[in-house]
Amino acid sequence: MEVERPIYLKRLIDRMDNGSAKVVTGVRRCGKSYLLNKIFRGYLLSNGVPEERVVTVALDDVRDEEYLDPRRLYDRLAAAAAKGHTYAIIDEIQLIEDFVPLVNGLLRLEDLDLYVTGSNSRLLSTDVLTEFRGRGDEVRMRPFSFSEFASAHPGDSRAMRDYLLYGGMPELLTRSDHEQKASYLQNLVAKVYLDDVVERHGVRLRDDLDRIFDDLCSSVGSLTNPSKIARTLHSAKGSGIDDNTVRDYLAHLEDAFLFDAAKRYDVRGKRYFQSLAKYYACDVGVRNARLNYRQLDENHLMENIVYAELRARGLSVDVGMVRSREQRGGKRVERQLEVDFIATRGGSRWYVQVAQGIDYPGKEEQEKKPLIKVNDSFRKVLVIRDALIPAHDESGILVIGLEDFLLDQGSLDL
């Protein structure tokens, strides 16, 4: 079954023929090759581009092994472009040892529009512009969003339950039961993701890397930093790892797109807390499988899914803190209230709170309080697990069910 990836297809279409290399990045096995070779290629052909004007090269395929030589690949694409405007798709570009001169050379060809995929840490967004001298344009891809996942399971009342449990890695569509899905995800982590990090970065302390990965999986939605993680490893595992090594390993896991770090931001003080962040898994299914399905706290899983959805929609996301002064025992005390997410795009901002439910005394007030204390004019949203008709309360806060929030790309602006 072909699952449309409309967000990413649109981003590619919007970048066509812009003079830059379109670099599709993301965690391994999230569908980058399928996006370019099937969905985008299909779009080009259906819009009148002749088949011979779309050249695809898969550098991880033995049939294209000769093109690991950058000169041969350049000559092939230059010859194609000399015959007419050509769209070139190169899969796993990082397998060419020094791919930057090749890409920059190809960008000088007038009649070539270039698209590449890669999972290498050199293809992070911060490096794309540097590596390609300002002519690299990143399209960051993620596993299936819930709306994409649900499109493959039409009418299935268990879709949200399954998504919370197994996540959105595309190959799960070919696995039929829990054993197959769990085995696939567990092997993906151990034999693809972590082995790749070890090989790429020359990691010496593999056991500690595994423990850091596990700690991040276990503490999704919790504030942490390298010092806190190092202390946990010292006390629980007897590790001698230091803060700087933990910091390096965290960076490696981010480079592999396995986790995103959301910084903590003081809303009123308008400053970041440099020492604390929350880490969210690239996919809740990967996280759950790694923990052998032991820690299935639905609230934390919801939080991870909402974070990933906001990022997939192209928003920058921080975790927020707002100070509240209250009377307690006759004394005026200051509390720090947490706003789960501050999502921004340009000059627009949304405050998003996530809760499993608000149906017991005091819970609704507790969840809305941080949003009310923010006290500015930007939109505020409370996402809850229950299905209900989206509505604004007297404070202007939109209360919306999780599925409605995820299925409607315009849900932040209802």
Features:
about 425 residues, alpha/beta, Rossmann fold, nine-stranded mixed beta sheet, 14 strands, globular
Quick take:
This protein is α/β, with parallel strands linked by helices and 414 residues long. The protein has 15 helices and 14 strands. It has a domain of 135 residues: Rossmann fold (3-Layer(aba) Sandwich), CATH 3.40.50.300.
Classify the secondary structure makeup into a structural class.
alpha/beta
- CATH architecture classification of the domain at 6-140: 3-Layer(aba) Sandwich
- Report the principal-axis shape: globular
H/I helix tally: 15
**Over all CA atoms, what is the radius of gyration?**
23 Å
Low-confidence stretches: none
Distance between the termini: 32 Å
Using DSSP, what is the number of strands?
A: 14
Q: How do the helices and strands follow one another from N- to C-terminus? A: HEHEHEHEHEHHHHEHHEEHHEEEHEEEH
Largest sheet: 9 strands, mixed
Oligomer: single chain
CATH superfamily of the domain at 6-140: P-loop containing nucleotide triphosphate hydrolases
Mean pLDDT: 92
| Sheet with the most strands: spatial strand order | 6-8-7-9-10-11-12-14-13
Strand content: 15-25%
What is the C-level CATH assignment of the domain at 6-140? Answer: Alpha Beta
- By CATH, the topology of the domain at 6-140 is Rossmann fold
Helicity level: 40-55%
